[in-house]
Each structure stands twice: as structure tokens, then as C-alpha cells.
Specification:
Strand content: 5-15%
Number of helices: 4
Number of strands: 4
CATH topology of the domain at 69-186: Fusion Protein Consisting Of Minor Coat Protein, Glycine Rich Linker, Tola, And A His Tag, Chain: A, Domain 2
Largest sheet: 4 strands, mixed
Radius of gyration: 24 Å
Distance between the termini: 78 Å
Shape: elongated
CATH architecture of the domain at 69-186: 2-Layer Sandwich
Strand order of the largest sheet: 1-4-2-3
């Protein structure tokens, strides 16, 4: 009986101590160490428990999912200018692919709207061409249909101007048929 009371008291003390320190979760995959009962510092759990307070963010075992996602801005930040330079070699990495797609983008000059966002989804074949036309998945709410059409035409024209992309054999095999989602953000100062 004393053993049961002692275990209960230890559990109560550990629960109070765990609630006393704020829990910080680092959402960047692989930027932490696994949790341990003996850790004295906050860490990201690799599993969720109904007994844990606060939000539960389960561990993701892969840095890229089945869907490759990219954001392209019309005016890139100064720190990201190098990511918008077209590679001078065959595309061998996902970073090369993203740089090539960024360098292809030219926003529309007529019927433009500041803050316009539009997302499309498409796939490449092994030869570097598109498998069907890009599919519109998102457009800024409240935008007239002719503005959406203008941006979609600019997206299609920008992609077609870059095609076919020159993939290395390894990247072509890895990307063929995989969906790629691109969010275009027109962050230019446009007179309205």
C-alpha cells in the first residue's frame, strides 16, 4: 500500500513539474533531438499523447512529401535573389528545378492587381514537358474573373516559355508524374 502511495505522489510531482516549465516546439524537421523522460529541456515529441498539455505536432520522417511546393514572388526579397537565377547546367536537384521555375515567371503587365495570389498544380514527364495543362487550385478571393484569367494566361505562358526543362536522368526519374504545386504572389506596387 505504501508503495502505491509513493508512486502516486511521484506521478503528481512529475506532472506539476512538467506543467510548470513552458513547452517549446521546434517545427523544423530534424532540428532537434528526440524526447526523453530524463531531458531537462523542451523537445519535440515523436508521438502524441492525450496526457500531454498543449498542441501536439507529430514527427515527420521525410523532408519532402509526395507534393513538391514552391512560392514564387514577382519581386523577390533581397536575400533570395540568388534563388531566382536560372541554372547554367542540366537540372540535377529540386533546388535547381525551383530556381528554373522562379526564373521563368514574368507577371502580367496589364490588368495586374497588387497582392494577387494564384496557385497551380501540375506534373512533369521524364522529357521535361508538362503532363497536361496546369490546374488552378487557388485564386485570391474577390478578384474579377478577367483578372484571374490574365494571371492564369501569364502562368501558362511563363511555363511554356521554359519548356522543355533539361533534367538529368536521376531527377527525371524522381520527378516524373509527381505533383508540383506553385503559389504565385504578385507583390509589386501596382497602380489601381
Amino acid at each position: 500500500m505504501w508503495r502505491g502511495i509513493l508512486v502516486f505522489i511521484l506521478l503528481a510531482i512529475s506532472t506539476i513539474a512538467a506543467d510548470a516549465r513552458p513547452r517549446q516546439i521546434n517545427p523544423i524537421p530534424f532540428a532537434h533531438e528526440p524526447c526523453s523522460v530524463l531531458d531537462g529541456r523542451p523537445c519535440t515529441p515523436s508521438y502524441c499523447s492525450p496526457l500531454e498539455p498543449g498542441p501536439c505536432i507529430p514527427e515527420i520522417d521525410y523532408p519532402y512529401g509526395q507534393n513538391l511546393q514552391l512560392t514564387i514572388q514577382s519581386v523577390p526579397p533581397e536575400a533570395d535573389r540568388a534563388k531566382y537565377q536560372k541554372p547554367d547546367h542540366d537540372l540535377d536537384t529540386i533546388g535547381d528545378l525551383f530556381a528554373e521555375l522562379r526564373s521563368c515567371w514574368s507577371p502580367p503587365s496589364d490588368n495586374a492587381r497588387a497582392g494577387m495570389q494564384m496557385s497551380v498544380r501540375f506534373s512533369f514527364n521524364r522529357a521535361g514537358g508538362l503532363i497536361g495543362p496546369p490546374r488552378l487550385t487557388f485564386a485570391t478571393a474577390g478578384v474579377p474573373a478577367d483578372t484571374r484569367t490574365t494571371y492564369l494566361k501569364a502562368i501558362n505562358a511563363s511555363l511554356n516559355a521554359c519548356l522543355p526543362l533539361k533534367f538529368t536522368g536521376g531527377l527525371a526519374g524522381a520527378l516524373a508524374g509527381r505533383p508540383i504545386a506553385i503559389r504565385y504572389v504578385d507583390n509589386r506596387q501596382v497602380a489601381q
